[in-house]
Amino acid sequence: MKAMQAAFEQLDFHRSGDNGYHVFRIPGLITTRQGTVMAWYDARKGRGGDWDPIDILMRRSLDNGATWEEARLLVGHNQFGVMQPINNLILISDAHTGEIHVLFCVNYETLYYMKSADEGLTFTEAVNITTVMEGFRSEYDWRVIATGPGHGLQHSNGRLIVPVWMSTGEGQEFQDPTKKGHRPSDLSVIYSDDHGQTWERGDFVARTRDGYLHPNETVAVELSDGRVLFNIRTEQDTYRRLISISPDGARDWGTPYYDEALEEPICFGSILRLPPGETGGTQPILFVNPSDLSRPASVWKISDRLSVQTYQRRGLTLKVSFDDCRTWTVRKTIWLEGAQYSDLTLASDGSILCLYERGDATGWYLTLARFNREWMLE
After folding, report:
1. So where are the chain's domains?
2. Which of 44, 141, 314, 339 has the most CB atoms around its CB within 10 Å?
3. In whole angstroms, what is the distance from residue 316 CA to residue 368 CA?
């Protein structure tokens, strides 16, 4: 992309039904220390649900997202037993060691870790680290656990930070007694201070019992003063993103509050801090999610006493803050029609990449949007 000239382009990775998969969902993106861009996503069989057979596919780009290698299997649904879905895989690029850290869940009940030291060409054998989640048992007797999804965060001090949510599994939203529900849910964090060798649990961030209805899928960003902000999905009828801030990304989380500028149709979002521009100045923070609340969808039965109106997931929108997420002064539409989960990364040439679930009259696609700061700010 030419500097100082606005540029925006899109590339479809997959269309639903490709290669025998019902749908491709839950995308993630990182850029490694050497500049390799890595994309990963669910490749779902069956009817494409959370409990159907789920493989994780991965693609790499060696030219800042312009072209991509063919997709390959990263983790398979039959790797840990017959027909067990792989859930919520997260990658973190370690700027200190150059390694790529990977966490994922199997069957929403077991947590694994592995890593790569060669730009994602090979990975170590997956190690069961569910013991870190067992540390929550004394406060929350979970039956369902999940990381992220999207990319995790490495703090400037080297700490690896991964939002985690957990559920008692009592919800009946899947209408199948063999499939544990994701409601009610509480939100916390796990972290590593030794580049993934060991993991520890942090404090709870937001809890249903405190009035934050089913906090779950969360993205993290480091603010300019080193504090860590969690941007949280809930099922609250405020239809706004929930925010909480910690001094270190592990403890002492502030009282959560709803950001009135960040509309929420009850979906996942993505957040990313950019470095200063060529002329210096503030470091903009980008947030992307579907934010069109004009078209009501179904009513979700949250419990026997509570239901919540949801909205069609449409209008993938980029918002930009120049003051550590206090205000959002730029708003750009990436896609007007159907849009669901997304993830963001910054390529080494300054291109901004957004991999997202895109829908139109012809079906659902996994699509990469690639643009520069000039397009973002024009």
Report:
1. 8-377
2. 339
3. 12
Give the C-alpha separation, 341 to 27, whole Å: 7
pLDDT in tens, the chain (378 residues): 445 699 999 999 999 999 999 999 999 999 999 999 999 999 999 999 999 999 999 999 999 999 999 999 999 999 998 778 999 999 999 999 999 999 999 999 999 999 999 999 999 999 999 999 999 999 999 999 999 999 999 999 999 999 999 999 988 888 788 889 899 999 999 999 999 999 999 999 999 999 999 999 999 999 999 999 999 999 999 999 999 999 999 999 999 999 999 999 999 999 999 987 655 567 999 999 999 999 999 888 777 778 889 899 999 999 999 999 999 999 999 999 999 999 999 999 999 999 999 999 999 999 999 999 999 998
Contacts of 312 (CB under 8 A, 6+ apart): 265, 292, 295, 296, 297, 338
Whole-angstrom distance, CA of residue 150 vs CA of residue 267: 13
State the Cα–Cα distance between residues 302 and 212, nearest whole angstrom: 13
- Report whether 47 contacts 362 (CB < 8 A): no
CATH of 8-377, picked from 3.40.640.10, 3.40.50.720, 2.120.10.10, 3.90.180.10, is 2.120.10.10
Cα 94 to Cα 26, 33, 333, 351: the distances in Å are 22, 7, 31, 20
pTM > 0.90: yes
Contact 343, 151 (CB under 8 A): yes
